[in-house]
Amino acid sequence: MVKQETGMGADKTVTEGISPARRRFITAALAAIAAAITGILGVPLAGFFALPALRRLERRWLEVGPVANFPEGEIKKALAKPLVAQVWPYQAPPVPIFVLNRGRGNFALYDIHCTHVGCPVRWNPQASRFFSPCHGGVFDKDGRVLAGPPPRPLDRYEYKTEKGIIYAGQIYEVNEKLEFVRWYHV
Amino acid sequence: MVSRMRRLLDWLEERLGTREQLTKFFYRRIPVGTTWLHTLGSAALFLILVQTVTGFFLAFYYVPSPEHAYDSVAYIQKEIPFGAFIRGLHYWGASLIVVVVFAHLLRVFFMGAYKYPRELSWVLGVILLFLVMLFGFTGYLLPWDQKAYWATVVGTHIAGTAPLVGDYLWRILQGGEEVGVRTLGRFYTAHVLILPAFLYAFILVHISMVIYQGIAPMPKRDLAFVRKEDYGRLYEASKQRGETFLEHLLRDSTVSFFLLLLLVWMAATWKVPMEEVADPTSTEYVPRPEWYFYFLFEMLWLFWGKWVPIATFYIPLALVLLLLLLPFYDRTPGRSPLKRPIASGFAVVTLVIMAALTYQGATAPLPPRSIIPQEAKALPVELVKGREVYEAQGCSACHVVKGRGTAAGPDLTRIGAGRDIEWLKRFLRNPTAVKPGSPMPPYRDLPEEDMDALVSYLASLK
């Protein structure tokens, strides 16, 4: 038996039972079937997996608490309650927020996660600074970076006050001048 | 008994050609000089089998929901007979696998076993290493304690810093906008269904390749430097002088057995650490990863501000690509580590850096804690106030004194030996005026009285 290379490197004695045209047709048919199966199962599965995670939550407000809880000039940690019942889990866990009352109805609401890699920052009232416990990030009362690796000031919540109650909305990122840059991870 | 065995083999032989397959497998020749170091791959496989079996059984009791996960693990640990032991096997086994798999990688690297014709075995091996790391990452969220929760928060934040896809990655990993019930579901599914499926599929292919190509020869004598065209002849010659695989199987089994003994000893002696239940609202917790992620975690110290993605994305990506593509850019004929000094040198430097970072992570100072009673007594009265100011101002958030604090800034244990009161005072009021470019935040508004107490305390540290 003399082996002879064909297009696919196959042994001719094996491939000669079928015409090249027929072989091409079958190859194409197999590819089409494989693609169809992948599409039919793959598209719904990919959507099932990824879309709920990518969906932006409808604007939900968190009840932070009455203005009276937050003395002027001080930073307090609040556990904010989501107001709208979530789709699931129905009982949404409380959200920790640092609230600075800047006076005259002005507030700053900070996300507790360091902007470096997300460790929980702690407020030290004597030093009047936020400290991250991981890589030495330090922030001042306005959330500006004083030291360490954090790439931007503390992220903030948009907020509103209605009938003496503070509500927090979405988180956004700010630049060194504390101006809005973009919504958080959107 | 023997004749029954023989009859069974005959029965199988007639239908499946078993005897020929088994003979080919067990009596195949292996190259001369195959050593105990060549048992690391099979040892990794053995440990993975142990993880699989202990994992099956843990899954009987474990409940993957934030409401029940922690309690179900505590139940396994405290109430179920052998529970602490089985969980111990699974927990310490994870660390052991990382060690063994990494040692296997080093063995293959330094013996040049990734070279022709085993390039794809290497690529699959690197993928297996990443799968093992992913097992670790997804596994330690499952107990849902503080360490689990915050390590995952840090993990998803790091993923979120990736350019372009960071936001999507952050959401997809978490299954939403926070680490919560969906994250736990995802990590659990990955840990017990998806990753095992891929792990075993890749292991099967990896091992098939080893059987098809044979164990890589020792890079010694005529095999220390092999041109592609000479490889087949030299390898055959080496096999002619070598043992049968059965001999090596004894070494494989011995190593696996002693690893099991070691693992049993660890599980029986060392308690699996378990912290408080996860609390997303806590702002007092100090996150730390598992030890095998220390080198990544500690690297985060080094890149600040807009350079953060270098540590969180670009260096890890570069390491992944360098490892994965190694056989395709290093195609020199040298196989002995001595015949390829550049590759060996680069590897040694990388290893030293990784070891140093891991050491730094392992010996990181204890979290800052307010003044310890004995220490307070030991301090002279006039310094107590200064120590209190030190604690109150959060100095320990960035500085270490006698092994306590965070090593972001200089260790102050002996600061008084080099700096006097006047210098310290000037520096604290306006750091950059004294030391240009100092990252130390200024303490301009500290009352004079507190400042005096603080610098007296600091100057006393000698």
Task: Describe the protein.
The complex is a heterodimer of chains A (186) and B (462). Mean pLDDT of chain A is 87; it is low at 1-7. Chain A has helices at 12-15, 20-54; strands at residues 62-66, 75-82, 95-103, 106-111, 122-124, 129-131, 138-139, 145-147, 156-162, 165-174, 180-183. Chain A is 21% helix and 32% strand. Chain A starts with 11 loop residues before the first helix and ends with a strand. Chain B contains 21 helices and two strands. In chain B, strands 1-2 form a two-stranded antiparallel sheet. In chain B, a hairpin with a 2-residue loop joins strand 1 (400-401) and strand 2. The longest helix of chain B is centred in the middle third of the chain and has 33 residues, at 181-213. The chains are: A alpha+beta (186), B mainly alpha (462). At the A-B interface, helix 2, strand 5 and strand 8 of A face helix 7 and helix 8 of B.
